[in-house]
Design brief:
The structure is a single chain. The protein is α+β, with helices and mostly antiparallel strands and about 220 residues long. The chain folds into 2 domains: about 160 residues, PAS domain (Beta-Lactamase, 2-Layer Sandwich), CATH 3.30.450; about 50 residues. Helix content is about 25%, strand content about 30%. The strands form 2 sheets. Strands 3-2-1-6-5-4 form a 6-stranded antiparallel beta sheet, with helices on both faces. A 4-stranded antiparallel beta sheet has the order 8-7-10-9. The mean pLDDT is about 95. Keywords: Membrane, Transmembrane, Transmembrane helix. This is Cache domain-containing protein.
Amino acid sequence: MLIVERAQALTDEVFAAVAAVREATVRLAGGGPLRSTDLAALRPLLFERLGPLVVGLGFIALPGLLADSHWYLEWWQHDPDGGVPRQFNAELDPARPAFYDYTQWDWFAGPQAGAERSICGPYVDYLCTDEYSLTFSLPVLAGGAFVGVAAADVFVSAFERAVLPALKDLRAPAFIASAAGRVIASTSARWTSGAVYRGAPGHTSHPIGRTGLSLITAG
């Protein structure tokens, strides 16, 4: 089906950007103990890959990895006005009330637990953009050890724009859901974006390749 091919191609495009960040980070980690300043070498790659689809991109370090910062993320965001990408500066002091413990998020915890590819969301990203978002992530291994996560943010609205034409070509209501059952894009009045699907009579699930996503069709 065209919609399966379109969704597969879209996720492959995002994961290609994430994989490039992972590979560049592994090369940096191979040079010995890392400092936060070393990760600035990723910025040309991040800036090149950011755009209307991939709106956030970077590397999130395993706490304790870096010699100078126990917590750190090299994370940059696309400027929709065409300006220079913006760095996301999270509160990384555990003593402060607004401390951002990124290890608690599924996009970090999943790869740390062994998931090879993770797509988390949709969720409202109150910290970075206040937008309904998806986060795509891959584990980063150096010398066989987990050292952090490479990840990308995609607005749900951008994902929907890319897949809705093919969804509408189907003869019956249909939607795309994440591995956790969260609806991402839909032509169904019942199953709207963000709803949780746990199976329903008269609906059929079609896995979308290795993405972890599924196409759910009615009738």
